[in-house]
Amino acid sequence: MPFRKSSSMGTAEIEKLAESWGKVVARRVHEEVGPDLDLDADDIEQMGIAAACVVARGTITDLLERKVSLLGPEQPCPACGRACAVGRRPRTITFWGGEVTYAEPICHCPACRRDFFPPASVATADIP
Predict the structure, then answer these.
(1) Residue 29 has what pLDDT?
(2) 123 in a structural domain
(3) What distance in Å separates the CA atoms of residue 99 and residue 84, rounded to the nearest whole number?
(4) Mean pLDDT by 10 residues, the chain (128 residues)
(5) I want to staple 77 with a disulfide (CB 3.0 to 4.6 A). Which of 29, 51, 109, 118 is the partner?
(6) Is residue 53 part of a domain?
(7) Is 32 helix (H, G, I), strand (E, B) or coil?
(8) Sign of torsion, CA 5 9 60 67?
(9) Phi, psi (5° rounding) for residue 21?
(10) Beta strand 83-95 with 74-76: parallel, antiparallel or unpaired?
(11) 102, β-bridge pairs
(12) What is the dihedral of CA 36, 41, 42, 47, to 10 degrees?
């Protein structure tokens, strides 16, 4: 599934949003650990890394699902134009923070005997 970059939300806005979520995580950790905050720098770093991975995984999963929802129930075959049902199959994408599994869209044209949309071996997005 092709992806286009959108300029509607810039990096600065995303960073600000993520920093706000980081503060929420820190507040929750502080509530759990207590007022003494008996954590060393390594503990704090590991919590930050874990939170970043989960936020990234949730963001990637949700945005992929939002893109798929725009397809509708059918897509035209790129060869003959016949309307073909959009199916889904499990796909795992590995990114710096772990893995994301989602139901990748795929279509099959019975007239052309052709599958279309990227196969599992081809990346659907450039995820750093």
Answers:
(1) 86
(2) no
(3) 30
(4) 60 91 90 82 91 93 90 89 92 92 93 75 38
(5) 109
(6) yes
(7) helix
(8) negative
(9) -65, -35
(10) antiparallel
(11) 91
(12) 60
Distance, CA of 114 to CA of 108 (rounded, Å): 6
Q: Confirm whether 18 is domain-assigned.
A: no
Bridge partners (DSSP) listed for residue 98: 95
Q: How many domains does the chain have?
A: 1
Query: What's the pLDDT at 111?
Result: 94
**CA-based nearest residue to 91, from 59, 72, 68, 114:** 68
In a 3-state reduction of DSSP, which class is residue 34?
coil
- pLDDT for the residue numbered 87: 94
The angle subtended at Cα 43 by Cα 31 and Cα 27, nearest 5°, is 25
Phi, psi of 9 (to 5 degrees): -130, 115
CB 44 within 8 A of CB 33: no
Q: Which residues pair with 75 in a beta bridge?
A: 84
> Letter for the amino acid at 89?
R
Q: Which run of H or E residues covers position 13?
A: helix 11-33
**pLDDT score for 70:** 85
Full domain range(s) for residue 49: 39-116
In three-state secondary structure terms, 90 is strand
Q: Which two tokens stand for residue 101?
A: 């599994």
